[in-house]
Amino acid sequence: MLLVMATSDEPEHQIIAAEAIVHAASKKDKCAAILSEGMGILKKLAKSPNDKVQVRALVGLCKAGSSGGLDFANKPLPEEEVQQLAQSCRKFLTNPAKDFDLRRWAAEGLAYLSLDGNVKDSLVEDRAALRSLIDLGKTGNQNIIYGVVSVFVNLTNSYDKPEVVPEMKELAQFAKQHVPVEHPKDSPECVAKRVEALAEEGVVSALVAVSKVESKNVRELIARVMNVVAEGKDHRGAMVQQGGAKALLALALDGTERGKECASQALARIGITIDPTMAFPGQRAYEVVRPLLALLQEEKSALQNFEALLALTNLAQVSESVRQRIVKEQGLSKIEHYLYEEHEMLKRAATECICNLMLSPDVQDIYIRLEGDRIKLLLLYMADEDVAVARAASGAIAMLSDDEKACARIIQPTMWLEVMKEISVSEHADIRLRALYIIGNLIRNSQTAAEAICQSELLEILLATSQLTGADNALAQKAALHALKAAHTKKLIAPNPEYEEDEDAE
């Protein structure tokens, strides 16, 4: 029946036949049948003077010709024919005289052909075609969304690839089984160039325009592309300007699990680089907390964990209400889980996040009131080899040490005195300053701590630091003098005129 209709002189019959063949080629075995029996018909229809017949036939050829998928070694059509098909589709796409429906069909044809690495590169090099594709997406028309977004997914390689285990690959080759081969132009370098071109042409605007689509599968594709674009630090500012952050929030809250994961990771990447007050103004600063915390799960990748922690660290600086929202969403326990990680970067990011959260009186109250090893762990990290960990941990303890009850908890672990000795002579000025501040608070808020400090080498360190000169040592000298003054007030050390001078200066 299709053969008869395809050879009819009536354009309507030819259109129906071409569309039927396109829909019939839904699976690889169907494509194989079309390749063996229907290619001649499609090629004949592709030369029709009627654009509507021609473009549908082109899509049929594109669909059958891409049945090999991503396997570079399995191409049903010669490379030259594939390039000719792509060029024909691009001509339809870039011709403003063609109606919207024809351009939609051309985009669908490219959605199949763009699985091929050479087609991807040629499409990106043809900036007019790329702009036409993006402009088509910006219309937000529901009929073109899947085709256009599928092209973007292919160009950015944002689809999931099966993991190839080298041992299994060798076994398959030994058994003379076919092993899929990746296209040379799907290398990370080639993908990065294509993503750069898409970002320059404003692909995010097109994705934002279609992001309100109801289909969860299409929402996932949009999130995948946005996540890949967000990998580039230079793209994130433009993403925010084009409404990407707002669209990603909606995608992170409603969609498939994989779609929500991609959207959340893209939000984390934006939150790392862009000032949170600009990236997530107003209510969005509260809404983004949940997607970021959703990435703090063991089944997520270490990279996703790390990026979420960095974004939460920045977010925790925004305001007290945002910090309270993080705590309310059970974020504190999730973040603390990564304090015990062996991965140095995860541990560092978690410690820095806790330091920023410690600005909240609610978080300080949790550390002071609840039993456990929270404070002990931070004390240990104050002497960590990783300077960033030591800096963050000492900052957190410094904030806690303003409270008398917290000081009592700080000196419970037996090693607290040794830790304070070590970091008070740190080669890093900011860590040393934090140590001196903590020592001063311990002397003021705890008689037990004050006596222990004045009977240890810490007293000599304080005396030596108080004698330092120069602008670089001014803050450390002042902190040491304050600590000595507190000890003098408690009559633990003899008076010194310098303490009185320091008091008069205040």
Write up what this structure looks like.
By secondary structure, this protein is mainly α. The chain is built from 34 helices and no strands. Helix 4 packs antiparallel against helix 5 and helix 6 runs antiparallel to helix 7. The chain is elongated. The termini are far apart. The mean pLDDT is 85.
Largest sheet: none
Unreliable segments of 5+ consecutive residues: none
Rounded mean pLDDT is 85
Distance between the termini: 98 Å
Proportion of residues in β-strands: under 5%
Number of helices: 34
- How many β-strand runs? 0
Radius of gyration: 32 Å
Overall shape: it is elongated
Structural class, from secondary structure content?
A: mainly alpha
Measured as a percent range, the helix fraction is: over 70%
Oligomer: single chain
Keywords:
single chain; 506 residues; 34 helices
Quick summary:
This protein is mainly alpha-helical and 506 residues long.
List the helices and strands and how they pair.
Layout: H1 2-6, H2 11-24, H3 28-37, H4 39-45, H5 51-65, H6 79-94, H7 100-113, H8 117-125, H9 127-138, H10 145-156, H11 166-174, H12 188-200, H13 203-210, H14 216-230, H15 236-241, H16 244-253, H17 257-273, H18 276-279, H19 284-287, H20 289-294, H21 302-315, H22 320-328, H23 331-337, H24 344-357, H25 361-369, H26 374-381, H27 387-400, H28 404-410, H29 416-424, H30 429-445, H31 447-454, H32 457-466, H33 474-489, H34 497-505
